[in-house]
User: Which sequence fits this backbone?
């Protein structure tokens, strides 16, 4: 079918002002703020209803046109830039907060609700509840973050954000509406089970299985007080044991690590950032005492930081994107590797070595996930967007890092297409066989974000 | 996390070299608490292209030659009221101060490339017209009649720069200002003013700005004045921020009328003898607020007027929602401009105020237009008009 005919069909489904094949829109949607090269987009659509999503998917399936669902578009790893052209479906007009069930602590929301929107809504209307939001800017979507296995606030205490999904409404390539979790049986979107759990098919599959239109995400109690106890650790080999001990004492809401050569005082140290919460000053003081003692025993030390620095870390969401300006060039991308705790010292070495090799100031860190069950360790590479060679240098560094992470036993998170292929190379053959079979069953025409997780 | 952040932007020299430093993180779209989108352009169009980040990337695409100019691209550059919400909420220090400048610089490129839209081009055509010198297409007033009516001298300490909107569209505001200045015994006069150039600067039509600035400064200097006062937020910003780029030798002090009024209140010289028993909310003009950081001065005046119950709209000060008139949007996108104002009026409704005060004739115009169009039944007045309606003494 000719392009203009497809455009016409799309405009019959969605108001024409939210359908575009205009050069300037395709230009913006053909790239993201990471280091990926731009790739061709044919159309951008912004549906407002489930029915519109269904009709667009049916059209795409009939015409065998790739379709790529997009949330905030800030994965940085090019996951919503089409690999084979097609329709980018920007979900941000589907932005209704449908229900907050404060008793069972979940939010039922549409896929385009941003983390900023949900955070502000709860702050105003349910101040005793807090949502799991990522370290990303407030323009990212709650759905997008959870569906890429995101981590962020509350991950230390309650696990990665993908694990916080109670239920999903998904449009599969046949254009039908499917419900997963308790909502498939009950009016309450309160749990994933106790039925065969298919929700995992849509997590970290990067839109290759279907388009999520609604999700239920867990909410958590918001303690009255929140503070940070900073620490400094000289020897990275002490970190795994120290973190295990901190998590064992159950005093931390969240734990972050920061390792970077700038500013100068941070060089050679790991900056430990432990968030504590409580209902009283006394509770916070007790937790602080416990942490100070743990730091001391691990040959690390408590660090008092100026209030303005503490405030930066207490801001929600944190402004992690500032790395984009480290090379005065508007770009950064990172390998965020899911690793077991014992790999932290190795990852510090790997990240530092690769950064220095590529002439990039080492900027590394970690967010602890699930009471010490794992860590998301990031190795970040800033680049100058206006310098193609600098971007290529960052892509090379990312690729090397992905390889090194896999070699030592970690798994790159939300990996760009080259990283996905490295993961697939190392993946158990039967896992791949099953993944391919499921994909073919759900998406026989291969229209859903094709190219990603493609088992050859 | 930390890191080295250095930006030294010289807009005239290197804006093309730094515009790519926008990461497109999207803070620019939001209110301060992220509860809503506060960028009028993104809120309407919703494609990422129409966020400030999208606009920065589009500008970079044009500079780098990755995309060519055409009318649709020009629309992306012009469909923005340059309200400055992006500057207020962008997280990249220093860089953020230039976001609106980048957009205006891109508009200059659009104009030079022949892609300035016709509606906006009309502004320049009227301002350049030797019979007009104003964007409204009115015959130039020269202000001689007003000088006679108010018995104003040729030489004075102050010049009241009326501004085109007040002189040709909001004469009540102009007259209220003239009466106030007389009552305050300010030694002032008027000049045969030509447009301050705000409309053409905001729409990238800068080729003759220097000539206009020189002319107006010459006329001001002819009076011997050391101070210029204006009742127009747009003129105020332009004279204070833009004129100095064209003539940095001037040592003339620029004031907005609210600064004079506030000073008189603080000195105990202005005393109100009657009350205004009304619930009032204040709309922050973008020109005066986000662009010039004047937030408390108008509020202090309103709080000092007996009887006024001053209530705030949810979005106020740096977090305000734009009236939708600025940046060439009123002339270029008249219907959308009214939609933007409608949202402001709806927000004002939630305060139960019956009077909306502002300090910008252009905001007053657009809010009033929307008030009529959507039958919102507000009274919308400039602060100087509110004062003019009261009994007051100035000692």
Assistant:
């Amino acid at each position: 079918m000719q392009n203009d005919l497809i455009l016409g069909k799309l405009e019959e489904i969605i108001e024409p002002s939210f359908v575009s094949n205009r050069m300037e829109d395709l230009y913006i949607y053909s790239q993201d703020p990471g280091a990926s090269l731009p790739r061709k987009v044919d159309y951008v659509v912004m549906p407002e209803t489930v029915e519109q999503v269904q009709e667009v998917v049916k059209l795409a399936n009939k015409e065998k046109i790739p379709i790529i669902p997009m949330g905030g578009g800030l994965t940085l790893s090019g996951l919503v830039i089409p690999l084979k052209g097609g329709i980018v479906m920007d979900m941000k007009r589907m932005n209704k907060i449908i229900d907050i069930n404060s008793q069972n602590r979940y939010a039922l929301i549409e896929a385009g609700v941003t983390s900023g929107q949900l955070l502000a809504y709860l702050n105003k209307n349910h101040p005793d509840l807090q949502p799991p939001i990522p370290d990303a800017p407030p323009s990212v979507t709650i759905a997008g973050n959870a569906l890429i296995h995101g981590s962020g606030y509350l991950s230390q205490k309650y696990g990665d954000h993908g694990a916080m999904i109670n239920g999903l409404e998904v449009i599969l390539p046949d254009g039908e509406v499917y419900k997963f979790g308790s909502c498939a049986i009950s009016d309450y979107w309160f749990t994933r089970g106790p039925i065969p759990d298919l929700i995992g098919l849509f997590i970290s599959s990067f839109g290759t299985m279907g388009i999520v239109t609604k999700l239920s995400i867990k909410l958590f109690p918001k303690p009255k007080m929140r503070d940070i106890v900073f620490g400094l650790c000289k020897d990275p080999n002490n970190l795994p044991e120290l973190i295990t001990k901190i998590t064992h004492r159950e005093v931390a809401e969240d734990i972050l690590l920061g390792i970077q050569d700038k500013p100068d005082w941070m060089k050679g140290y790991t900056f430990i950032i432990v968030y504590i919460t409580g209902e009283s000053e006394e509770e916070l003081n007790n937790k602080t005492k416990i942490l100070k003692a743990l730091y001391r025993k691990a040959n690390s030390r408590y660090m008092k930081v100026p209030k303005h620095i503490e405030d930066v870390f207490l801001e929600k969401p944190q402004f992690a994107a500032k790395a984009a300006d480290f090379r005065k060039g508007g770009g950064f991308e990172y390998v965020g590797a899911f690793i077991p705790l014992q790999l932290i010292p190795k990852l510090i070495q790997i990240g530092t070595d690769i950064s220095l090799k590529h002439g990039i100031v080492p900027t590394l860190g970690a967010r602890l996930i699930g009471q010490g069950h794992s860590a998301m360790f990031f190795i970040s590479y800033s680049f100058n967007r206006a310098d193609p060679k600098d971007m290529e240098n960052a892509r090379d560094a990312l690729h090397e890092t992905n390889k090194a992470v896999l070699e030592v036993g970690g798994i790159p998170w939300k990996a760009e297409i080259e990283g996905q292929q490295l993961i697939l190379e190392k993946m158990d053959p039967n896992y791949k066989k099953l993944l391919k079979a499921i994909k073919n069953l759900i998406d026989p025409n291969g229209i859903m974000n094709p190219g990603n997780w493609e088992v050859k | 996390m930390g890191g080295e952040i250095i930006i030294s932007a010289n807009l005239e020299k290197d804006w093309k070299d730094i515009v790519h430093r926008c990461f497109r993180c999207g803070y620019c779209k939001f209110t301060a608490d992220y509860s809503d989108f506060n960028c009028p352009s993104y809120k309407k169009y919703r494609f990422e292209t129409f966020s400030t980040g999208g606009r920065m990337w589009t500008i970079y695409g044009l500079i780098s030659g990755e995309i060519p100019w055409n009318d649709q691209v020009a629309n992306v550059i012009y469909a923005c009221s340059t309200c400055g919400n992006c500057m207020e909420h962008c997280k990249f220090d220093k860089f953020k101060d230039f976001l609106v400048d980048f957009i205006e610089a891109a508009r200059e490129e659009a104009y030079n490339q022949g892609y300035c839209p016709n509606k906006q081009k009309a502004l320049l055509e009227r301002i350049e017209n030797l019979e007009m010198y104003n964007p409204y297409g009115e015959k130039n007033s020269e202000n001689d009649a007003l000088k006679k009516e108010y018995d104003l001298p040729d030489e004075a300490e102050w010049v009241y720069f009326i501004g085109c909107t007040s002189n040709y569209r909001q004469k009540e505001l102009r007259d209220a200002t003239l009466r106030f200045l007389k009552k305050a015994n300010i030694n002032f006069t008027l000049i045969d003013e030509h447009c301050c150039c705000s409309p053409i600067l905001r729409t990238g039509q800068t080729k003759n700005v220097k000539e206009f600035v020189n002319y107006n400064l010459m006329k001001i200097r002819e009076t011997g004045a050391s101070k210029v006062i204006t009742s127009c937020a747009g003129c105020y910003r332009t004279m204070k921020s833009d004129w100095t780029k064209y003539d940095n030798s001037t040592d003339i002090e620029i004031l907005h009328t609210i600064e004079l009024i506030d000073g008189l209140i603080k000195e105990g010289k202005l005393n109100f003898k009657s009350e205004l028993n009304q619930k009032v909310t204040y709309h922050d003009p973008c020109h005066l607020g986000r662009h010039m950081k004047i937030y408390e001065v108008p509020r202090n005046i309103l709080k000092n007027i007996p009887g006024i119950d001053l209530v705030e709209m949810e979005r106020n000060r740096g977090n305000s929602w734009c009236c939708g008139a600025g940046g060439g949007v009123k002339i270029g996108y008249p219907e959308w401009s009214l939609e933007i104002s409608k949202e402001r009026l709806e927000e004002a409704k939630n305060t139960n105020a019956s009077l909306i005060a502002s300090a910008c004739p252009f905001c007053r115009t657009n809010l009033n237009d929307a008030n009529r169009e959507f039958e919102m039944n507000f009274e919308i007045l400039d602060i100087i008009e509110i004062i003019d309606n009261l009994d007051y003494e100035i000692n």
Observations:
- Residues 320-415 of chain A form a domain with the Vanillyl-alcohol Oxidase; Chain A, domain 3 fold (CATH 3.40.462.10).
